DNA sequence: GCGACAG
DNA sequence: ATCTTGTCGC
């Protein structure tokens, strides 16, 4: 873990936020992930237009089955604006609350955003990983930084995303004839790990199962279909 | 100055 | 991100 003042992110200036990102970058670890993966979580937030209310959540899936087994939902608020490159300061406080509420932490977390595929190599997935010590990776729907050549149209094809001469992630075709998603390691895993895991989490949709379910659940949470708290989603299957 | 720009 | 209907394509 790392020294982080209070998460007074709401009061930070972009200059201060940049300094925090540069400091956190010094703690990034991208060594290959060794252990066996048994659970993987998807993290995401849902917002209401013109409101500072944030509906955050994580959905834990079994791996490699990719079946939802639990979810943690929390309502929070933020006044930090959305600024490309600083998404972490707007979403992490809320996601952290939902994460702390989980009794048994997942082996790794996939975020709806980037890991090191970021101008300063400190996207939301990397930021959360360094702050909590968790194993993380990113999966964004649009390119934030770098350049890439359009990958082949078949599912599973991919292309490197490079920036200043280094590979910082991949543009991955998770479904035939659909726009690619952008994969990158967040913390405690290698570039290759992130790509391999993303491909194994691909189902019938463009978004990998972890983030797809996370998006679905936080949205149901925002509309009132599901209540806040930690919910076990698999016990009923035992009967 | 110009273009790019996760959610 | 969110507000929204039908519609084209696999």
TrEMBL record:
Transmembrane residues, as ranges?
none
Q: Which UniProt keywords apply?
A: Cytoplasm, DNA damage, DNA repair, Endonuclease, Hydrolase, Magnesium, Metal-binding, Nuclease
Cofactors = Mg(2+)
- Is Metal-binding among this UniProt entry's keywords? yes
Marked site: Interaction with target DNA = 82
A Gene Ontology molecular function term of the record: endonuclease activity
Major subcellular site: cytoplasm
Substrates-to-products reaction catalysed: Endonucleolytic cleavage at apurinic or apyrimidinic sites to products with a 5'-phosphate
Query: Can you tell me which residues bind Mg(2+)?
Result: 44, 112
Which EC class heads this enzyme's classification? hydrolase
**Organism domain of life:** Bacteria
Name the job this protein performs.
DNA repair enzyme involved in the repair of deaminated bases. Selectively cleaves double-stranded DNA at the second phosphodiester bond 3' to a deoxyinosine leaving behind the intact lesion on the nicked DNA.
Tell me the PANTHER family matching this sequence: ENDONUCLEASE V (PTHR28511)
What the record says about family reads: Belongs to the endonuclease V family.
Descriptive protein name:
Endonuclease V
UniProt source species: Dyadobacter beijingensis
Q: Which gene encodes it?
A: nfi
